[in-house]
Amino acid sequence: MDRSHTERELETILEKSRDNIMITDGEGRILRAGSNCARIYGREIDELLGVCVHELERAGVLRPSVTVQVLQQRAPVQLMQATETGRSVMAQGFPVFDDDGELIRVVSFSQDLTDLQLLQQEYELLQQKLAQRRYPGDAETISVDELSFRSPQVRELYELLQRIAPTDASLLLLGESGVGKTAFAQLTHRLGPRCDGPFIEVNCSAIPENLFESEMFGYAPGSFTGAARQGKPGLIEQADGGTLFLDEVGDLPLPMQVKLLKVLQDGKVTRIGSTAPRAIDFRLISATNHDLHEQVEAGASGSISITV
Question: Is 146 domain-assigned?
């Protein structure tokens, strides 16, 4: 391929990616930076080129620096950053080695999670209001699709979902059984850009643990005794192009949490008995009536880092 074509491709990736991409040499000096630098780190690209990430870390522009960690560990690193602009950023860094094993580049990807965290806080405040206030008996009844409600607080929740639904953000719905988490998950799907795709609902507490992996990930032909001759797509694969709704996610087995997280990070799923990953694209919505923070503290549940 013509070198100029490669340069244009790289420039397009840097400019158009929703992540902020940064490339440094083996000493941490910035060679290229994405167009989101100003928004996330408060620095224009021209201010960053040629600067060493150690200097930026000392100056508090980003702390800690994922590139510094990669240079020290010579391995991929993922961490949360706090920037001097007051933003919360998830950063991933990957080392690049030459044929002699020398570390020659570090490529990092940064995602700004600040706005999504604010939305989560707003949702939690609405949940608190719902628990503290009684519904007024004379309020006007509002109907949206198959939902009817008269509470001003639920109206606020509906307006929040209207703002979240057009995004690709993963959602975690918390609340007691019977408050309508499934209905709101379906509403979010219908309001979003994947409304024409499938809505796959999985009750994590209803599938036996010994069958969970084959049900979620599917299996290749002849992968185990009793397997269907043609194989079977899993529930995750069936959600391609739509929404995967994990109800009672607090009951998700710990090994499945790790495997599901890898699917979300890679955007690929591999059936049992196969070595060929399949690219998938779905939105994740989870719901639980458990206090996940308490479960993590008690060691009864893994840290489900798939929600925003």
Answer: no
What amino acid is encoded at 31 in this protein? Answer: L
Distance, CA of 208 to CA of 214 (rounded, Å): 11
Instruction: Let me know if residue 124 belongs to a domain.
Output: no
* pLDDT tens for each residue of 99-126: 999 999 999 988 877 766 666 676 677 7
71 by Cβ neighbours in 10 Å (0-12 / 13-18 / 19+) ranks as: buried
pLDDT, tens only, 12-65: 777 766 778 889 999 999 998 887 777 778 888 888 889 999 998 888 887 889
Tell me whether residue 286 is in a domain: yes
DSSP assignment of 126-184: HHHHHHHSPPPTTSPPEEETTEEE--HHHHHHHHHHHHHTTS---EEEE--TTSSHHHH
Phi, psi for residue 100 in degrees, rounded to 5: -95, 5
Q: How far apart are CA 49 and CA 87, in angstroms?
A: 21
Question: What's the domain range around 80?
Answer: 3-112
Nearest by Cα to 104 from 153, 172, 31: 31
Q: Distances in Å between the alpha carbon of 232 and those of 80, 121, 134, 201?
A: 38, 40, 48, 17
What residues does 287 pair with on adjacent strands?
A: 173, 247
What does the longest C-alpha to C-alpha distance in the chain come to? 76
| Contact (CB, 8 A) for 84 and 60 | yes
Instruction: Reply yes or no: is the peptide bond before residue 208 cis, omega within 30 of 0.
Output: no
Helix (H), strand (E) at residue 293:
helix 292-298
